[in-house]
Amino acid sequence: MSQEIEANIQKIRERIAAAAARANRDPAGIRLMAVSKTVEPRRILKALEAGILLLGENYVQEAREKIPAVGRGAEWHMIGHLQTNRLNMSSISSTGFIPWTAWIWRGSWTKGRASTTAA
């Protein structure tokens, strides 16, 4: 499993380098995010060992379980749309829709959990 993950990451990095060259960009300015949606922690750990530093998770409830299990050796981000029934679970950083930012912040503030970590 570890070799398969490493080989896949290497192929993706090669594709990124080729695309960067075609676009006349420095590949060092491009960050690779591995998405951990429905992936068990031991596979995520293998990706970290292979050099992945940026992780994305779709589900708040899975992130709450995975981050402590995997550790904080990576930069974690919530990706995709947020469900309103999940907003009270934690402070949330999202790549979602900007108008949500103020709504989330207001909701966190009124519950005593002010967070300014929206992207």
Description:
This protein is mainly alpha-helical. It is built from 4 helices and 3 strands; from the N terminus they run αβαβαβα. It has helices at residues 2-22, 41-49, 60-70, 98-110, and strands spanning 33-35, 54-57, 75-78. Strands 1-2-3 form a 3-stranded parallel beta sheet. The longest helix is centred in the first third of the chain and has 21 residues, at 2-22. It is globular, with a radius of gyration of 16 Å. Residues 90-100 and 107-119 have low confidence and may be disordered.
Structural class estimated from helices and strands: mainly alpha
**Relative helix content:** 40-55%
Taking the alpha carbons of the first and last residues, their distance comes to 33 Å
Strand order of the largest sheet: 1-2-3
- Return Rg in Å: 16 Å
Q: List the domain count as a whole number.
A: 2
Low-confidence stretches: 90-100, 107-119
Please trace the helix and strand order, writing H or E for each element.
HEHEHEH
Main sheet record: 3 strands, parallel
* Portion in strands: 5-15%
Which term fits the overall shape?
Answer: globular
- Average pLDDT reading: 77
What is the β-strand count?
Answer: 3
The number of helices is 4
Task: List the defining traits of the structure above.
single chain, 119 residues, mainly alpha, three-stranded parallel β-sheet, 3 strands, 45% helix, disordered C terminus
